[in-house]
Amino acid sequence: MTTCLVTGAAGFVGSHLCEQLIARGHRVIGVDAFIPYYPRPLKEHNLAHLQGAPLFSFHELDLRTADLAPLCREADVIFHLAAMAGLLRSWREFDTYMSCNILATQRLLDAARQEGIEHFIHISTSSVYGRFATGDEESPLAPISPYGITKLAAEHLCQAYAENFGLAVTILRLFSVYGPRQRPDMGYNIFIRKILNDELITIDGDGNDSRSNTFIADCVQGILLAFERRDVSVGQVFNIGGGEEVSVNQVLAILAELSGRQPRITHGPPRPGDQRRTVADIRKAQQLLGYQPTTGIRDGLRAQLAWQRANMHQER
Fold it and tell me: Which of 47, 140, 294, 296 is deepest in the core (most CB within 10 A)?
């Protein structure tokens, strides 16, 4: 049994990861600061299936200020998912993004180094590539938002600790994750919520921006493979994404069909710092880790739609 420290445990990806680690017989120490990026009750709801589980314990603390040594002393592996997400807000609140994404990561890395953590798995983002994220892990890194810039800085910190102190680090760049528990500020959650409530949807730009979306179960599979295949994942960077590229307009058409409701749509200007096209090149993860996403966009959207219908009261 491995003891796993998961930061951002109350979040979208973090809560799913905790559940799967416990299902595999590992002990999980969850950490979250409940920074009010979105309502706390939604995050607490994400933890509902974990509370009371014999292999799960939870600590509400802020990585930027807390004493992290005691937590790291208990753990064998760290999954670092905690971060300040979102493009638009990063233009307005750079200090928060800098402290949450850079300072918090540095403090956790330093505690991990001092306490002899066996494996530090850092969760990054396709936003580090810039406006077009279509190549492999060796592609140029040119983020075009403060969010992407701070996430790239966090990657560099991980690599610096690996180079200078021998910390065993793996970096995973996630591509457009969706599915049940998706954050309420994310596109598909907004689209579904507004379709179900018959509200006007504002598309940023022409709707032809495209993503190779990653269903949450496939995303977690990739993270677990990096953990389980430590022999090949340490020292590596992997793209973790889905295999099916769709545009915003195509997603809305699928949701209209699945929901039986026609969305009401208007268009606004493109968001500054938004990516025009992301297509996850996952060949490296496939070859080294055996990663293979299996959920197509239609099945994934059907699952998210069902979850949001069942939890509409939580989203209000």
Answer: 47
For the residues 39-46, what does the mean pLDDT come to? 95
Which among 185, 174, 190 has a CA at the least distance from the CA of 305?
190
7: which strand partners? 31, 80
Helices 216-228, 12-23: inter-axial angle, 10-degree rounding: 50
CATH for 178-211+243-315 is 3.90.25.10
Identify the CA nearest to 18 among candidates 226, 76, 8. Answer: 8
Question: Which residues are part of the catalytic machinery?
Answer: 147
User: 315 in the Ramachandran plot: left (φ > 0), alpha (ψ -120 to 50) or beta?
Assistant: alpha
Output the average pLDDT for the chain.
94
Concatenating the DSSP letter of every residue in 245-294 gives: EEEHHHHHHHHHHHHT-PPEEEEEPPPTT--SEE----HHHHHHH-----
Class of domain 3-177+215-240: alpha beta
Give the residue among 255, 142, 133 at the shortest CA–CA distance from 190: 255
At which residue do the structure tokens 């607490």 appear?
Answer: 44
43 CB burial (10 A radius; 0-12, 13-18, 19+)? buried
pLDDT at 209: 84
Instruction: Identify the pLDDT of residue 314.
Output: 61
Question: Which of the four pLDDT bands, split at 50, 70 and 90, describes residue 63?
Answer: very high
Q: Is 128 helix (H, G, I), strand (E, B) or coil?
A: helix
Domain positions in the chain are: 3-177+215-240, 178-211+243-315
When pLDDT is averaged across residues 252-277 and rounded to a whole number, the result is 87
The Cα 251–Cα 245 span in angstroms is 10
